[in-house]
Amino acid sequence: MIDTTILSWVTFIYFGAFVFYLFRMILGREFWGKLAGWLALAGLIAQSVALIIRWKASYDLGIGHAPLTNFYESLIFFAWTVVFLYLLIERRLKNRSIGVFVMPVAFLIMAYASIAPGISNRIEPLIPALQSNWLTSHVLTCFMGYAAFTVTFALGIMFFVRKAAAHDSSGVRVFIHLLPSESQIDDLIYSCAALGFIFLTLGIVTGSVWAHYAWGSYWSWDPKETWSLITWLTYAVMLHVRMMRGWRGVRMAIMAIIGFACVLFTYLGVNLLPSLHSYL
Question: What is the number of domains present in the chain?
Answer without folding.
Answer: 2
